[in-house]
Amino acid sequence: MPHECDAGGLTPGGVMGDVPPLVMRAFEAADELGMPRTQDGTGPSCCLPGVGRFLAVLAAGCVGGRIGELGTGVGVGAAWMASAMPADCELVTVELDPVRAAAARKVLADDARVEVIRGDAFDELARRAPFDLVFADGGQSARAVELLRIGGRLVVDDVTPVEALPADSPYRTNDPKRGFFFTDSRLVATEVVLPDLRNSLLVGTRVR
User: Which of the four, 92, 135, 158, 208, has the lowest number of CB atoms within 10 Å?
Assistant: First the structure.
């Protein structure tokens, strides 16, 4: 039965497809902890459905590969990727907050391909690199390139499309995330605007 989601997820008519059961379990965990499913500017929030679906598309192609995530939260992004990735793929996700890490472990406990670690995300993933796909949901996007194999992809969310920014926003001309993605010679990158037109993500492929 379709579920209605917001911010670039499922539309009322089910146009973009059903939400995987594992993602619904992660949403429930987020609700229990009072972690918002959409960005409200007050603190950490869940991976948006539009971002999750994009991650699922990339994860589905990681045959025999390895996926890393910096910043698990309660496991929403990891749930999207785990629901789509091939049987021979593995996912390592790291969360610093002990409460959120514990919640994510419960959400993802039934999938032996997924390892949830509590600790410093970059340090923990660096020990397990290189990765075919890295979702940097907790900052350190510049350093995250180091975690990729050549041909691997980096995804960063929490970006506002330029056209959706206030006219006087400094991010129209000086956005650190865009500045990194589009000037780092190691990446071929682009920005993907989500269907809600209020959120976007950056994705780059490591070429050197």
Answer: 208
